[in-house]
Each structure stands twice: as structure tokens, then as C-alpha cells.
Amino acid sequence: MEKVRLDPEILPPMPVTLVGAMVEGRPNFMAAAWVTRVGHKPPMIGVSINHRQYTAQGIRENGAFSLCLPGPGLVEKTDYCGLVSGRKADKAALFDVFSGEVAGAPMIRQCPLCLEMTLFQAVDLPQHTFFIGEIKAGWADGEILTDGKPDVAKYKPLLLTMPDNRYWTLGDHVADAWSAGKALKKGERQ
Length: 190
Known about the structure:
By secondary structure, this protein is mainly beta. It has four helices and 14 strands.
């Protein structure tokens, strides 16, 4: 099949999160999908946030932030958190906010999965800051766990596609990672 050149703005599906930080003494949340794992030991996640965002100010102020993963039932509130600035609206009022072990990292009880982290490093880019956080604890609703681990089939994380700007839920399980390719690795199949 022939390949077609695409605009560089095309991106793979990205996890939708609500980034939480204390800003000027109050909890604030913003929608963010430019999120990725960046380290294993210690566990670290990075999120890219525009310099002008109110939440970026809070992360810098406190050296801490949270990532909460909303399910489909929170899509309207999640989208709102990406449309409105915390400078002008109290977005935390939409949620039942709780704290874990890290000061300055407010979390959302309605989200089935939340991570709290301390700021490891902030990398300034032309328009954004890439905040790298060291995960200190994760919090999950008990009903989304299978064998003590979050089960995406149970909490249905949201994904964002761009440039069409649509929210999706995760699809079907197709294979197990670090297992599906073992036959090729051994040279058993071509």
C-alpha cells in the first residue's frame, strides 16, 4: 500500500488527563493529553504544558502535581477544564478534591485513577514546559482493579486524537506486550 505524506501536526492517540496543582493556595485542574512515561526506576511521567497556563505556575510554585485519568462519564467536565483558565474560574468546584501524600498535588475523587508526583525537572521549550514528575503514589477506585492492578477495561480511559480533536475510549485487547513477538524473536515464524 502506498504511503501518503501527512501534515506534521498529526499525532497518535494520546491519554487524556486532568493535571492538578495548587496555585496561589487553591487547587486547580487543567486538561492535558501531551503526557508520556519517561522513566521506570524511579517511575516518572512527563507532561507538556504551555508556559502561560495557570497550572504551570502552580507546578513551579509547589514542585508537585497530580495526573488524574477521567473516564467517559467525566468528558464534559474534562473538556471544560481545557477550555477555561483557573485564573477566571474555580474548576476544582466541579470535583470532590482529595489529597494524598504529596503536598501541592490535589487529586479528583471522581477519577478512577490518580497519580501524585513531585517535580523532578522542568524543561523549557519554545512554547511549553515539559514537566517531569517522579510518581510517589497512585490512587485507584477498588472496582477498577484486577489482581491489584488498574484494568483499563474496567475504567475505560479517555484518548484524544488530533488534529480532528475527538475524545475516544480505548478499544479491544489484541495481544500481550513483550510476549506477542516471542515466536519471531526465536526465529520460529517469518
